[in-house]
Amino acid sequence: MSKRPFTLAEGQPVSDPSVSTTLPVYGSGGITTLGDTLLIETLAHFNRERIPERVVHAKAAGAWGEFEVTNDISSLTSAKFLNGVGKKTPVLFRLSTTGGEKGSADTVRDVRGFSVKFYTEEGNHDIVGNHIPVFFVRDPVRFPSLNRSHKKHPATNRPDWTMFWDFHVNQPESVHALMHLFGSRGIPDSIRRVTGFGVHTFKLVAADGRFRYCKFHFRPTQSITHFSGQEATRLAGANADFHNQDLWDAISRGQFPVWKLYVQVMEPEQAETYGRALFDITKVWPHKDFPLIEVGKMSLNKNPANYFAEIEQAAFSPSNMVPGIAMTPDPMLQARMFAYPDAQRYRLGVNYTQLPSNRAICPVYAPFERDGMATMTRNYGGDPNYVRSTLSPGSPSQIISDVRHTERIERNASLGQNEILVDDEDYIQPRELWNKVFDEAEKRQWVANVSQTLEDVPVQLREAVTAMFSKVDPRIGQLMVSKASTNAHL
């Protein structure tokens, strides 16, 4: 390997970056000065080399890969990266825990964030979801509170189950997500074997302007497997970076993980009468009503050369959509479309889209977004930075699918704090999960997992948790009471 001379950041040569410039004194001491640029720059950069971590989804692993279309869905969408069997698109993948800080353990019981950035010829498209198909809340104003309740207590600075359950019994629309979280799916044994869901409802828009509602699903080609609670706890202490290492080592061995991408599709005519589950992310679309349609496969085949540059600085957002895919009136989606880019502006700076991981591979001409800290381009030179200029070299983009879709407003609807109150509909899908998906062993393990978190919770709150899950199925409450009685005698 050829040697490269050391320099300062501005290129000036440095003879030895491990030695300061000093004036020696007796006793092996030395006097340093502000004229030692090497020392000053080294210390100053060290003080600034950490950036704010993500408030949620801070601990993550990531890798580069490729997406290939395996089934033609051009009749559903004009999005070029989804059209033409064999079409390949480079991707960046990131999977994270939600609540823990950057130094926390991988193998905790938590919802995993599942993010994929597609670098397409029409711009970057992101699918930013979770490893379970539903979410805890449907009103975006509750999103910060949800995450605070899953993080550390403001006084003790420790995770606190009382705080966790106090939030959820007062937002019981979260019961469906809780059923998933405390099941076996709550602790994956490998990133390579987790599911990924876009969670929200989107629109697929065809070249003729016709649209359908859709949901995105990633399913691993390997079997979906999980850790027991005991094994996960052991690994959290033995190797806090277990999932990171497992993904890295597999790619290094050439055992590239693969997921298939599917969509569920709902016709607008069906949506007119489908009800709350159309845009309510605490609910799923049953596969029997809306079967999975295969689209393609994603393979991860390259580890990052530098984690910070490529993964920590990667910025994902559901607002990153290409022509042929569009937003819907899901309030949580619309709030995330603001909150996620805003988080990146705070963490990485206003020009975060110029960083290598976030830079589009297609031509970019956005002269109305310029200047600001850390501009890394020619900043559009002298091109006009105002609209409707006859001097501008820019021209309107010809987007075939850029059509307007007016959603039907409910009759007599009024703008206000229109809360969707929890009713029995919110318990139907959790009940089906309990009765039709969980076997007897899974049911008992689920009860054990929840009961373990309630041991130090105040009695009144413990009873409220039991009452909430009893609305899913009375047997859950009975098993929880029995488990609590057994634990009390141990």
From TrEMBL:
EC nos: 1.11.1.6
InterPro entries linked: Catalase, Catalase_AS, Catalase_clade1/3, Catalase_core, Catalase_haem_BS, Catalase_immune_responsive, Catalase_sf
Catalytic site positions: H57, N130
Enzyme type, top EC level: oxidoreductase
Cofactors (names): heme
Keyword set, alphabetical order: Alkaloid metabolism, Heme, Hydrogen peroxide, Iron, Metal-binding, Oxidoreductase, Peroxidase
Domain Catalase core: 7-395
Recorded catalytic activity of this chain's protein: 2 H2O2 = O2 + 2 H2O
The keyword Heme belongs to this UniProt entry's keyword annotation: yes
Transmembrane residue ranges: none
GO terms assigned for molecular function: catalase activity; heme binding; metal ion binding
GO cellular component terms, A-Z: mitochondrion; peroxisome
Family: Belongs to the catalase family.
Name of the protein this chain belongs to: Catalase
Originating organism: Talaromyces proteolyticus
